[in-house]
Every structure is written in C-alpha cells, then in structure tokens.
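re: ur question from earlier - yeah i can do the single chain one, its not a big deal. heres the input i used so u can compare w yours
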Amino acid sequence: MQNLEAPSSVLGRYFTNLVAWMNGAGVVWVFALMFLICADITGRTVFDSPIRGVTEMVSLSLVACVFLQIAYAIYRSRLTRAEVVVGKVQAHQPVLASDWTAVLLGVGCLMFVLLAVGAWPDFMRAFRTGEFAGVEGMFTVQVWPIKLLLVGGAAVAALECLRQLIGKISDSASLGRGELRSMPRPVVFIVPLLIVACVAILWLAGVEPRTIGVVMIAIVLLLIALGMPIAIALLLVGFLGLAVLKQDFGIATLTLALAAEGTISEYVFAAVPLFVLMGLFVNASDIGRDAFRAAQRMFGWIYGGLGVATVAANALFAAITGISIASAAIFSKIAVPEMVRQGYTAKFAVGLTAGSSVLGMLIPPSLLLIIYGVIAEVSIGGLFIAAVIPGILLAIAFAAGVVLMAWLTPGFVGHVDRRHADAGSMSWLEVLIGILPVFVLIILVLGGIYGGVFTPTEAGAAGAFAAMCLALLKRRLDWPKLWEVMRETGQVSVTILFLIIAASTFSRMLALTGLPQDVAAFLGGTGLGMFGFLAAYLLLLVVLGTVLDSTSILLILLPLALPVVGELGGNLIWFGIVSVVGIEIGLMTPPLGLSVYVIKSSLDDDSISLGTIFAGAFPFVLITLAVTIVLMAFPQLSLVLLPS
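and the output i got, formated as tokens:
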C-alpha cells in the first residue's frame, strides 16, 4: 500500500493530523510500558512490593497500541509485502500497477471495515455490562476503552485506505491520459473475480473441509505473490475460509474481531516492542561501532582479520539486539568502508556484512525465537538457551570461511594484509571499555532470564531501559533522536503484531479444516521419517525466503509444520532453532533478501548494486545452509545446555 503526500484539502489535513496524533499516542504508550514494567521489577525485587495489575495493563495496552498506530503504518507503507511482481509491473506497466494497487487498497479498506463492524457489538456489550480485567478486591480496569480504540483504530485505518484509494484512482486516470496502454484496465479485476467465483463454488458445492484448506492456502500464496500486504492477505483468506466453513459471513466477521482482540493480548507479546526498543537504543548509542573497533583490535593480526572482526562484532551486537536488519544497517556503515579502505573488495565486504548480520536472528535474545516460542507454546527461555551453541557454531563457521576465502580466493576477497595499525591505536583498556556496555547488557538480559530473575518480557524492558541509559551516558541521545527511536519502535512493532493477528485468523481457519492434522498423519505414514520431512521443510524455507520476510514465513508455515514434528516425535525447541537458521538463508537470497536491501539503502552508493551484494553474500548462504544441515543431523547441539 503506497503512501501519498498529505492532502491539500482542509478535511484531508485534519484527517492526516488525526492519524499522526493517534500514532504519537501509541508510540508514547509503548514507551510508557517500559517504565511500568521496570517499576514493577524494582518494586518486586527491591521493596518486595510489586505493582498490582501490571500483567493485565500491559496485555490490554498491546491491542490499543496496535490499533492506534495501524493507520499510520498504512500511511507510511510499512505493512510487509512481496515486491517482486509489483515492482516489475510498475517498471513496465505503471497504469496497470496503479490500478492493481487501487484494488489492493479497496480490499484493505473492506477488511478494516469488517474488523470495526465485528468488534462493535463486543464494545457495546463491555460498555453496558461494565466488563473489567483483573481480580476484584486487588486490581480491576474497565476494558471498554480498549475495545473502543480497536473499533476506532480499525475505522480510521479503513478511511486511510479509502483516502489512498481515491488518490490512486486519480493517479491512474492521469497516467492513462498520457500514454497508450497495452493492457486494458479491467484486467486487474480478473484475480478478484476468480477468487469470488472460487469461494462461491466452495460454498455451494459443499466440499470437504480439507479441500477448502488446500484452496485457501493456494489463494493466500497467489495474493502474496501479487503484492497484497501479507497481513491483509492472511486476514482476507482467513475470513473467506471461515465464512465457507461455517456457511455464515457473520460468524467469520466476529472471528476477525476476536482474533484482533485476543491474539496479542498476552503479556509475553510485549517482548516484541521492548526488544525492538532495546535494539534501536543500542543502535543510537554507537555500541556497534565500539564493538567493531574492539574486535578489529583483537583479530586484526589474522589474515583476513578485518572480516573476522566484522563477524565477531555482529555476534556481539546480536547478543543485545535480536534484530538482523539492525546489524545490517549499522555494520554496512561501519565495517564496509573500513574493509574497502584496507584492500577488501566491495563485493566481499557487503556480502560478509549481509551474511554475518543474520546472526541477529539466532543468537539470543532473538525476536524470531520469541515469536516462535509463543506460537509453538514452548519456553522462550529454553529457546534462548538452545540457540547459544548453534549461534556460536554459525559465527565460527563464518569466521573460518572468511579466513579460508582470504587464502584461497584473493580475487574475490581482495589483497588483504595482517593489518591492525589503525585498531592498534586502541589500548587494551580502551578495548575493554568499548565492549563493557555490550557485556553489561548481555549479563542483564540473558543472565536475568537464565537466572530466573526476569521473564523474557521483563528482560526486554530492563534491557531497553539500560540501553537508553547507556545512550544518555554516551551523549548520543537527544530529544529528536529519542522521538525517532520511539516512532520507529512503534512502526516495527505494529507491523509484526498486526501480522501475528492476521496469521492467527488464518491459522484458526486451517485448524477448522483439519488439514494440519491430515498433513501430519500423511507424512508420518509415508516412511520418510524426520529427515525426509526436514529436507522438504528446508527446501520450502529457502524457496519462501526468496519472496517473503522471516516473520511471515514463520507464521504461515508453523500451523502446518508443528503437527508434523509432533507426529514424528521431534523436539519443538530443536525444531525452532532449525527453523530460524533455515529462515535466515532467505535474508541473503534474491529477489527479496531483506538484509541485502537494508545494506543497499544504508550505503547509498550507486557503484554497489543489489546484484553485487547478492553475489558477495552467496558463500555465506552456503555456509548457513551447511550449518542448518548439521543442526538437523545432530539435535543435541541445540539441546545439550537445556536442563534434563
């Protein structure tokens, strides 16, 4: 969904200001959650007096924050979608692309209207009955204001889609007057009409639920491939599937609202915005630069040592952020120029940065592992422990690959030397001071989780607060920078959380079809065993990784994969580690390759093309693939540190 310039009409300006103010309220609310949870931690551990109702307040707040900010996310085009097909159509058929975008905006508007309509009766009921959350006599809070924000936020998001739709129709008309179009405008309605016809046939023919599930999976993949925002595609197909299964659009509409309200209203989901906030504060504090200089000092004497230092710095940074794209953005500005200056080829420098950035999704605390833990209903702390050895193994494999490539393929790596003169200006005391904040955050977050002091959500709040304090102490955080961090936290978080809501709707529909259980039973009876399933699963991860982002892959595949793993007797924690490492390959492969695009945009260097970055990252794709296979073959590498 493409954002437009602010409208010139008075009404349009008022509406745009409303969207901005709602987003600002959601941003501040997310930031306030960090202080609330930290205050609860302090009260509980220091004064033995926890704040009552924190869990309920945080859980309800997540729903409010998402729907306060969703309209702004649409305005800023932050909803994740696959750009491959749309980008090619835009380049060769701009009128057709504009018309198709208008269709997508219309679908988005419809889905948000359905969300608002479905949530309205529940809001009215809560308002009339005085429904509350909490325990009487201890802590209670009225829930109708949260339900009202859900209704209002969905309605404003629908209006934002409608505003953009009107603007897009106007754009299409102006484009059409200036050129002879090779394809007629009605062509954009072919796919929607086919979907309507397909749903009508399924409704009238009374086909079995499994067939409905298969058809709905095919439709959602088609819509995602054609550029529909992934969350909207999952909502739409989940809604249509539920309507066909229940033979009732009213039930499907109410289920949409239930998913919107109930999916993320759990305390553990607050870990998502809190770890994002922590990562962005770490980014603002220049800890990544300090870690790189310290690693350069330690590994500069090795042949190819600057490449090894890049891997080591990424590993350290990953242990305090949990977001791969943050590592890619930071080290593309820090490591790439320094490597090129010291004789490394630009292709190798950007490829190594893209490759080593994926450590952020594996080395705990990992945002992807948190999402997996919630969906698979396994211990997030257990997942973090299980990821330690695989994370170290992948980092060592990258470092060893750098050294081998430096010796064996100097044409690819560059004419490097054992240089550490620049880094050598740092004393070992300065090195220690440079990496001390990293270890402080690691001990605080991971030590708190492993030691039983914090839950993952509390660790995210404590880590975010500590990272903010570090940024203030280093004088890297002023008011504009603070607002930028808060706003970006809100937008990243709302994109992920709304995607989880949409995936929940789709998963509920699939569960009703019985398809996941049938797939599990079929694969369990084929005799392929766990290894055969994993081979097919890994191939599917790599293929989907070429067009989808990591979170979307996880949310789409897990409803089908988890029952199979259970049927085959696999350990769900080990499977989570394998899934995350396999998904990381998609961050480096064309045509999507999210880390590659982040590096390209961060460098802003026309001499380094996307093709150059993809080519440079290819050896690290192979290394990651090899490590994934090793982890599949030897589950104990992931499970050895877990308590028996």
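DSSP finds 28 helices and two strands in the chain. not sure if urs matches, ping me
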